[in-house]
Queue: 2 jobs
Job 1
Amino acid sequence: MKNWIHRIFKKNRLHQTQNNAPMPMGMPEIPPSRAEAMIKMIEKTQEVELSCDEVHRLLGEFAEMALRGEDAASLLPLVHHHLDTCPDCREEYDALMQILQASPD
Ligand SMILES: [Zn+2]
């Protein structure tokens, strides 16, 4: 599961435990069932594309996962997909991997 999904759930739980606190204006509460449906919908429509800027922000995390032997492609599928389709970012990623491999930590 992606980090931002956890964040949605965390936020949701926070609202439920702070019943006494006044609700911030303009922030409708998302019921868990609704959030789940949204996540399923988002996961189904994998056409969501990251921009190069977004990929650059996640590139370090992605490279470190790969170096740790984690399945970075499954954990960050959007980054993986972008690297497959964007030669610029692929080049950036390869360069980053070389740097990280050359100097551990
Ligand atoms: Zn790109």
Note: The chain has a mean pLDDT of 80.
Job 2
Amino acid sequence: MIAVTGAAGFIGSCMVRSLNDAGYTDLVVVDEFSRPDKMRNLDGKSFREQIHRDNFLRWLERHHADVEAVLHLGARTDTTEMDTAIFDRLNLEYSKSLWMLCAGFRIPLFYASSAATYGLGEQGYADDHATIPLLKPLNPYGQSKQDFDVWALEQQHNAQTPPAWAGFKFFNVYGPGERHKGRMASVVLQAFDQIVRPSFIGIRLSTMKEYERAVKKWERYTENPKITVHYNRNVKEVLGSDGVSGLLLEDTTGGPDETLAVTGMFLAIGHEPNSKPFVGKLDMDEAGYIKIGRPGSTYTSVHGVFVCGDVADKVYRQAVTAAGTGCMAAIDAERWLAEQ
Ligand SMILES: Cc1cc2nc3c(=O)[nH]c(=O)nc-3n(C[C@H](O)[C@H](O)[C@H](O)COP(=O)(O)OP(=O)(O)OC[C@H]3O[C@@H](n4cnc5c(N)ncnc54)[C@H](O)[C@@H]3O)c2cc1C
């Protein structure tokens, strides 16, 4: 059996898929499993058991004899998080405990370090052990990975190492399974979204098929000679005192602002159901619309919670239908209260 930590994350879920492709399905997947958008990464993957990260170390103590290797990819990876206590607990101390168990039970351990440990690259990018303590990461996340690398190397002197071990530093990783990372997603995905997913196309992209469809749709616009696409621009200001005479455009790649002479502007806002506060609390479909529990009603997956309007409607999205389901929700709620 192989244990994969961080299995619902981007790299972890790709690792599970690769192991499945190679014929390994005797896997335990370890994560915290609370976010539906991350859980989608495990759809279609085969594994034996799902274990919460808080229970994994105790689980390993009991089942170590069955575990052939631990692939430790779980970590807090937010490079903008400044709370070092979070990294100490989730990255450094957790990894140390896991290491000690693997060393004691003779289980090979392979873990994700990070390319963030190289900092500005002052020491180059070679991984000889003498250079590693000299690296200067630029953020607390990178520092937590660096601290563990240094600590792991020190364990060699105490002869307290797993029978085989290695830390991997990933560079420029991108691909399926990273959408849940938001602003921490790869530059490739963010650039793709900026170019191919302007709000007026109004689609969510979560699979390669959707990517391909979006690209085709986009090509229809770019091939039209009457349309010029201005990539990587934000509208900073609408110019003109008596109607629109132009737009002041900001270059998001850092170039100078520029003015575009136009006499009109249309703003498309797209359709994103504003359901984020209820993620993990109410059942939703993959686009984030709250699911109706009972057909023809406003019941949700949670007893006593009712839903109405655009947040549950991806078909009509009109004021009159929103108002109608609003009345239904009020009646459902009133009857539900009377029944209690
Ligand atoms: C540009 C545009 C044009 C439209 N034109 C038409 C039209 O011509 N005819 C038509 O019938 N329909 C039209 N619609 C659609 C119509 O506006 C919507 O279907 C309708 O407003 C949906 O009502 P709602 O109550 O579900 O959502 P909303 O009207 O969006 O109301 C949701 C409310 O919840 C609030 N809210 C969000 N998050 C939270 C939170 N966490 N806590 C508390 N409150 C929160 C929001 O601030 C908002 O006030 C248009 C929509 C747009 C955007």
Note: The chain is about 35% helix and 10% strand.
